[in-house]
Each structure stands twice: as C-alpha cells, then as structure tokens.
Amino acid sequence: xxxxxxxxxxxxxxxxxxxAFKCFRNLPHKTCTRPGGEMEIVEMVMKLLNWDWEVVxxxxxxxxxxxxxxLMDDGNFSGIMGLLAEDKIDMSxxxxxxxxxxxxxxxxxxxxRYFQQVYIISRPPESDxxxxxxxxxxxEIWLLLLGAIILVASFRFLVNVFFLHHEGPKTSIGTRSLxxxxxxxxRQKTPLIIELYSGVILDGTMILLTxxxxxxxxxxxxxxxxxxxxxxxxxxHQDQLIDLLEHHKKYLTYYMDVPLEGSNRKNVRRxxxxxxxxxxxxxxxxxxxxxxxxxxxxxYSTYDIEFLPNAVSSWNKEQELTVIRDTTGIISYVAFxxxxxxxxxxxxxxxxxxxxxxxxxxxxxxxxxxxxxxxEDSMVKAKRTSLSLVKHLEQLFELYVIGMCCCVLVxxxxxxxxxxxxxxxxxxxxxxxxxxxxxxxxxxxxKMSTSTLRRIDRLDSTQTAQDSQxxxxxxxxAIPEDDDLDDSIFTISPTRF
Length: 497
Description:
single chain, alpha/beta, 8-stranded mixed β-sheet, 3-stranded parallel β-sheet, 14 helices, 47% helix, membrane
C-alpha cells in the first residue's frame, strides 16, 4: 500500500553509527539484519502502516553528512533540516533534537529518545592521593580548625593571666596555652590544670569536637588509601568547563558549523565570548576529532541518556576516551522530523509509533548497536595499597623537613638575639661597675686622707705633751737617794691615822 502521498515516502538518512549503518541503504527492498537502531524503528512503523518508502542517501544525493540541521545567518537551515524545509525529503530517518527554531519549519513525532549535553575527552589519569594528608579536609575546614585552636588558646591565656594570676613571662604563658590546645587536638598528653568551671566546659566541648574530627579524618584518610582509584576528571559540569576554557587550560573541538549550547543564559553569553577569544579546533570527520581529543581537546555534543547511566563513563576502551554527562545540563527531546507540508503524514506516523515506543530502548540496546557505557571508575579494580615515601609519604616528609628548617632558623635567630642582649647587659654592667669602683676609690681616698690627718694631729699632740713633760722634769730639783726610805716617793706615814 502506498502512502497518503500517492508515492513512496522519501526517508532522508546519512550513515550514522549505530543508528544507521552497514546495509541500511538496501532497505526496504532487500533484507538487512542490522541496519541500525533508528532504521529498525522506521522499518517497524512502516510495516504497521503498510506504506511504501525508500531510503534517500543524503550524502550521495545532496552531499549532506553529519549535519542534522543548523540555523544559518540567512535564516535557513543546513543539513537534514534544510532538506525538510525545502521538501527535498519527506521525513528524516534519523531522530533530530526538537528546538523552537526547528519546529517553525518541520513537524516532529513523539519523542523517542532523551538526550543530554556530554563532553568527550581523553581518558584522564587515576587520582593521585599523594596529597591525602591535606586533601581530607577542604581549605575552609582547615582554616576553621586553626581559628578554633587560636580562639581557645587565647581564652586560656586570658584566664591564666587575669583570673588565675599565673606568674612568669607572658610569652611563656601564651606558648603553653597554645601548645596545650594543640596537644588536645592531636590527642597527645598535656598537663592540664583547670581551676574554673568555664574552662572545664570549654575543654570538654573542645575534646568532643576534636574526637569527632579526629575519627572522621582518620577514616577518610584510610578510605582514600584503601578504596579503588578513580579517574581524575578535570570537570563535571558546563560551568567548570567554561572556567577552564576562559583560563586557556582546555579548548573545544567539534564538527564544522556546530553551535555551542549553554545550559543557562549566563553560560550562553560566556560561550559566545569564548568563541571569539579562545582556541576552537573543528574537523570534518570523526578520525580528526579523535586525534584532537587525544591531544587535549574537549568534544562538545549531546547523547542519549539511556546509554549513560553514570555521570562519568568510558566512551571507548580502545581509543581511551571518556565521556562526561552534564547532570545539570538541558535534557533534549529527540524525534523524527517531517516536512512542513506533511503534517497529516506525521500524525498517522505517530499513531503507529505509539505501539513501538515501549520497545525502543530494547531496540537501541540490541547487540551490535549502542550499549550502556561502563562507569569510568569501574574500569579500575580495587587493589592493595602500601604506603611509600614517593607516592604517599612524600608530603609528610616535606613537612617534616620544612619544620626542621624552621626550627633551625628560629634557633639561630634566638642565638643572635641572646648574644645581642647579653652584650648589651655586659656593656651596662661595665659602665655601672666602673662608676661604682670610682666612687669606692674616692671614698677610700677620702677616708685615708681623713685618717692620716687625724693621725698627724694625734702625733702633734703627743709630741707637744712629751716636750712639756720633759721641760717640767728638767725644772724639778734633784731628790737625794735614801736607802732607808721606801722606793716609792709617795709614802704615807702611818702615824697620821
């Protein structure tokens, strides 16, 4: 039975693996066991409608290949959409993404597939966990933890100085307060002397938070070392990709005259700016695109989400390509297109298509056609990980060396500072000591002078007394010697009493 057109329906198709490939050009007159997923759907609907139809190879007839239809500057469409708009074909044998612009020049059937934005890149290397020491927490968490330690240490310092009146240098008290809190965080023993209830509450809360933080850090670090390795994907969403493009860390590659579609208005503006400022490499064939992706290019396209159950999947093991599905991107409806003058034909096709819709996923996932892509992370098996200096402990060793260098530097600075202050003290002591000795010398000279003068005065007085006594004795008469008298010249007579 012929169609409503009175002639066979012209179905425009170009080779597109796995939707139309191999022997699809022989349909419907010759048998073709696997013409492609979408060609099988068209063949089933045509049999249900009992229509005559023919395949039009757009590559041979109109030189249209790998072009579903893009809006050009003159308002017309290229590719399959251009052929539909000009009635050169009656319907598209390949499903086309439905857009408001395309709906103005063609009619579309019920959506048969759902597409989402994808990015194909060269397979990234496995994630490197050499930074597992710091990568466990984000930068914000590390800063908050450092701030909490400083805050608690400051509180302990104020309590020790102004409430408990601890004696000693303020720097020593502050250092001890900081080390006590730090020791609490790393679960080391420290002499804690708590004399205030507020300090008990503060330290108790800090111990609770530290316990949770420590357990999480330890378990997270262990999981990074024991869990299977994952691919180090450079981006996962369009926003992250555009950031890399703006900083010239990545570049785009795609077919000629393929517009970039933003997932939101902001990204649309950013992509237009990138097209004028960033590097974009286009190719006419798939081989060139694969070579460009191997060099670091990012292929932008859309793909059936039925084939991509995971956000990051292995696109092709032999080619070592990885596909990233933008889970925040736009989900597009894909359907067969009919020319604007064939609305009745489209409606009748829809009635028969309803009977086939439930089985479409099974058709497109047939062996030899498309298949669900394996998750990229499942490509790497779990393996035993042994800590090594080069792969894991390199960062820890670097931290130890840096800490030792800082200690040596501080020790040298302290030695220089101590020598400086010691020399200052010695100079002060010499100056102060010399002044003291001079004063002592002056006092000694003054005392010696005073003693000498006093001695001279005493000698003078003694000499004068001796001279006077000598003169007195010289003036006295001589006393005759008498043997009968006492030797004493002062004899008292007993008769006088």
